[in-house]
Design a protein that fits this description.
Layout: H1 2-28, H2 30-33, E1 36-37, E2 40-41, H3 42-78
Antiparallel strand pairs: 1-2
Helix pairs in contact: 1-3
Amino acid sequence: MRRQLVLSTGCALAFLIALLGLPLVNYLAPAIMAKRVGGFTLAWLILGVLFFPYVWAISFHFIRRSLALEASEVKEARR
């Protein structure tokens, strides 16, 4: 359970960094976030295009590691 807690906490922190980091960067560096990239401002590119794959990557990592932890627990229980 401790390894699952560490995994969950790490994934939650990665999500919160992105969720709270984008408004913070917008506030602290508005000139950088207002630059145009591919027809969008950098802020909208990150929020509208890059945020979702980032969340999917966190979810994929969480599910993969969670299944590995569960399999390891089953192995240990069968010994």
